[in-house]
Amino acid sequence: TGELPEYLGNMSLTTLDLSFNKLRGGIPDSFNSRMRNVFLTGNLLNGTVPDWIPEIEGPLRKFDLSYNNFTYGNSLGLNCKNQRVNLFRSFSESNKGIDPCLIIPQCSQYNNSFYINCGGDRFVDKSTGTAYDADNRDDIMFYKGGTNWAVSSTGGFFENETDPVTRSYISKNTSTLPINKPELYMNARLSPLTLTYNGFCLLDGSYTVNFQFAEIIFTHDQTYKSYGRRIFDVYIQGKLVQKDFKIEAGNEIELNFPAVMVTNKTLEIRFHWAGKGTTGIPDTGKGVYGPLISAISVTSDSEPPSEKGNSTSAGNSISAGTIVGVVVAVVFVFFLVLAVLWWKGCLQR
């Protein structure tokens, strides 16, 4: 608890991790000196973010301020474009409304689905024609992908920060996978701590969320690597839907969650490692024991809108019931006018 002391930035620290400590106040300017990696996610830091943070550069320079209470200012217009800085969910509810990193000037269309090949290239399922967006940008803490989704990762890999394998946010499988649709499982996105996917520009309504997992770091054999266990929690729309979920090595696992409500055009999916499972198998995963996901699919539980209706805002679409009602009313008025005219003609006779 308390505030960040100024003297921390004057020490010979290269990496500082004070995540989840209920820290308050701002960030001292002394932090813009020797430190190469700073992780302050999950605190109560407030005020404005110093102007120098969105401008940091360098292959080993990372600044994670996600999940805090900062005030959004005009000086941070480019904050989400610097992929060395993570400001996802870092602004207080009263100031952000919708997270500034996810603000879209105007949705060109509202969608009723999205599909992601997490950690991999674009993939088309030939049996269904479903196209999975690529999600293959590595060593990135936040970016928008596809047409209507974004991904954020918190935490850092500390074993050997000069080793590019250690710093990778994507795991690549090198063995044969005797499973259905192996293309979706050859790569996976992983995170040291928390991995969040946000869908936006979605039609409001009920959705089914499907996750596909396969453990491709720990093995399913007779070596010591087979003793690894990956355990994490799964949240959808802020609600815990799967606690202490464990991926089995050598096999794919699917989780299916129907009737997920979208009420503000956005959907949040979060995988969080709470420190459970394996944390100390040498040379296996190099400290990467956090959440891992192979593919995500989100589909509406309702009938898909027409092509014309799907390309316009939901507020401008007209339902079939409304059209039928208008037609019936017009026909009724037409025959009523004819009846009145006929009645008047009879009176004149």
Quickly describe the structure.
With 349 residues, the protein is mainly β. It has three helices and 21 strands. The longest helix has 29 residues, at 320-348.
Question: What's the layout of helices and strands?
Answer:
Elements: E1 2-3, E2 15-17, E3 23-24, E4 37-39, E5 62-64, E6 85-86, H1 93-96, E7 113-118, E8 123-124, E9 131-135, E10 142-145, E11 149-154, E12 170-172, E13 187-190, E14 194-199, E15 205-214, E16 230-236, E17 239-247, E18 252-262, E19 267-272, E20 292-293, E21 295-300, H2 307-310, H3 320-348
Parallel strand pairs: 1-3, 2-4, 4-5, 5-6, 7-9
Antiparallel strand pairs: 7-21, 8-9, 10-11, 11-14, 12-13, 13-20, 14-19, 15-18, 15-21, 16-17, 16-19
Distance between the termini: 96 Å
Question: Which radius of gyration do the C-alpha atoms yield?
Answer: 26 Å
- Backbone shape: globular
Uncertain runs are 162-166, 306-317
Order of helices and strands: EEEEEEHEEEEEEEEEEEEEEEHH
Using the 3D structure, state the CATH architecture of the largest domain.
Sandwich
Which CATH class of the largest domain is shown? Answer: Mainly Beta
User: How can the largest sheet be summarized?
Assistant: 6 strands, mixed
- CATH level-3 fold name of the largest domain: Jelly Rolls
- In what range is the share of β-strand residues? 25-35%
Helix share, percent: 10-25%
Number of helices: 3
Query: What's the average pLDDT?
Result: 79
In spatial order, strands of the major sheet run: 8-9-7-21-15-18
Total number of beta strands: 21
Structural class: mainly beta
Number of domain modules = 3
Please identify the oligomeric state. Answer: single chain
